[in-house]
Amino acid sequence: MKISKYLLAGTLSIIFLISSCGGQGSNYSNEDESISSSDSTSITNNPSVDTSTSTTSGDDNSSSSESVVLPSEYSTIKKVNEISANLTNTNDVGIANSNELVKIEAKIYADLDSLTTQGNYGTERYKMLAIDNSGSLYLRINLTTREALKTYVTTSDESGSTLTLIGYPSLYRQENELLLYSYSVSSNSIDIDLDNVASPLTNIADVYEEIGKMKMNNKGRAYGKIVSVDVMCLHKLSTNDNNIIFIDNSNSLLVYDAKNFYNIISDNSTYKIYIAIQMYNFRPGAVLLKCTSIEKTSISFETFKINGLASNKTGSQFYETEPGKDYNPTSYPTNANYSNLFGKMYLFDGYINLYYKSGSAYMVLEDTYNENTYSAYTNAITAKALFINNSSEQKLYTSSEYNNSILYKALTDAPQSKHTIYVFPYEFNSNHYFQFEVLLNTLN
Known about the structure:
elongated; 17% helix; CATH 2.40.50.200; 20 strands; 444 residues; 5-stranded mixed beta barrel; disordered N terminus; CATH 2.40.50.140
């Protein structure tokens, strides 16, 4: 059912102020579980039972039925990476495990807010990034261990506990990992210089070239090396996302999970950033590990608008690039039409509209003028509308939220007017619509 535009907007803002607003559940539920770290904590993963797959007891407090010989000597991440890279006994999803435990001292620099969904991967589907001065390595852990280790993730000032990590070198689709067996807080404290670990790159185009070397699974996920690059902060997404769009003079880069840095990074300021590159659901990006303020006046938004502006696309053209349509595991990008949307900015030229969900309004952009709003997001999808990711343009319920929405004001001031605004692809989400982050200060 289609609904007449501004009559319902005004009516709903009155009606639903009386009733309670329907909230949306979080993407992730924290479990009330913890592991004591005062002594060495055993995770009890023992791949020696079957080296073709990653096996685990599923109970973090149980003891392994196999005889385990703990290593007496410390190794380094560089040496563990060499062991992992030489593993050959991979199973059908590209997993291989060593039978021998190794021990390293390292710090955890990132908790990756995603999980591996491949079958035969075991319960250790979560990843954290461990670093010493010889290199970096992804830890394979389960949910309970992940929750416990979050306490030790290094903060923006690089403070964080040094951990003793014991585990089995592992390989997953050419990515070196450590299947964690146990951890403890080390009595030693190591200072890590990320310049010893990161590959220095000239520009964001080089970042995408490195991302292109990673081998993704059929979910479009891959985790890669640490690099550094000089950039300018163009736009910080909402604090709910903790993501940031950085640019140089030709390309943009979406950096995830920047919550430790969100309050110390400013728009239009330049930084040297240290990032762990990755692909997430065929979307290229990176996790921010460290940033250092620099003076680099050669990077500017005015130059980026010239070099970083892609050819305009209609909503229908964006929807033609739905992830997974052209997946090819033997070439990069494995989902080229979709993955290549990112890294550039687009100038939207069209109309503003909205849809309603649980009594709240959500702003969208569309190619053609429609005198009616949408009663559901599925109707907006049918119209190939672009959904706005900016927090100020979603869940408009109270009078102040409507008043603070720049797009809603533009819509009510001139409902039949065409508008231009710079937009960045954000993601094609699980509800099968395209989300875009827009630069609201560039409207018209």
